[in-house]
Amino acid sequence: MITERKVDLTGLKCPMPIVKLTKLMKELDPGEALTATADDAAFCLDVESWCNSTGHELVRLEDVDKQLLAVIRKKDSPAE
Amino acid sequence: MTSTIEAFSPETVAALEQRIEGLEKRIERTADSNALNMVVFSGELDKLLAAFVIATGAAACGMRVSMFFSFWGAASLKKEGPQTGGKSIVERMFGWMLPGGLSRRKLSKLDMLGVGRQMMVREMAKKNVATLPELVEAAKELDVEIKICEMSMSLMGIRPEEIIDYPNMSYCGVASFVEQSSSSNTTLFI
Description:
The structure holds two protein chains of two kinds. By secondary structure, chain A is of the alpha+beta class. Helix content of chain A is 30%, strand content 32%. In chain A, strand 1, helix 1 (16-27) and strand 2 form a beta-alpha-beta unit. Chain A has a single domain (4-73), classed as Translation Initiation Factor IF3. In chain A, strands 1-2-4-3 form a four-stranded mixed beta sheet, with helices on one face. By secondary structure, chain B is an alpha/beta fold. Chain B folds into two domains: 1-31; 35-189, Hypothetical Protein Ychn, Chain: A, CATH 3.40.1260.10.
C-alpha cells in the first residue's frame, strides 16, 4: 500500500531542499511516497540528481509556473 | 590439503591470520569509495559556505563526506570568546589576529572592511540562503566528518577547547588525509 506524505520546501535555497528531503526520507517506510513542493530554481534538476544518487524513485516532477512539485518514492531497503 | 595446512608452523599461521585481519579491516574502510574528501584551507565566509554547501549536498546524496581543515580553515573553526591561558606571546598574537566565530568570517572579495560582508549577510537572509552556522548544523546531522590539521593547531597556538563543538571531529595529520583521499573517489581543495 502506498500512502502519501507531503512537505513544503518553498523558500529554501540550495542545498537545504535536498538536506531536508534526506532527513524526511529516513522517516518513511520503503515504498512510501513523499510529495514535495519547492520554488528553488535549482531544485528541478537537483531532485532528479538526488534521486539518481540515492536510488529513490522520482515518480513525478512538475513545473507549473516555477512552482515545482516532485513525488518521490522511497527505495526498497537493501536485501537482508 | 589438510597435510599442506599442517605443514605451516603455528607462527606462520598466526602471521597469516594477522595479515588477513589487517586486509579485512582495510577492505572495510575502503569498501565504499563513493566518498568526498575535502581540504578546507581557506577561512573566509564565501569559501566556507561553498565548502559546506558541497559537503552537506554530497552527504544528502549518500556520499561519505570528510572535511580536512588546515591553516586558515582550521583557525576559522574557533568559537567566539577569550583565548585559553598558557599561551606564548606569539600564540596570543595569532589569537588576536584570528578571532573565532562562524558568523564573523570575512569575505575573500568585496569585504570592504565589513560593509560588503554586511550587505552579503543581509541579502542571504532576504533570499533565505542558509547561513554558515546553519550549514554546520546540517553537516552534523548528516554525519559529515571533520578532521583538523594538528600542525596548524600547534603552529597558531589554537587549543582544542577553543574549537566549535562538533560530534564527528578529530585532530590528525596529513597521513589521515591521504588515507581518506585514497578511499574517496573525489577530493577537493578549497
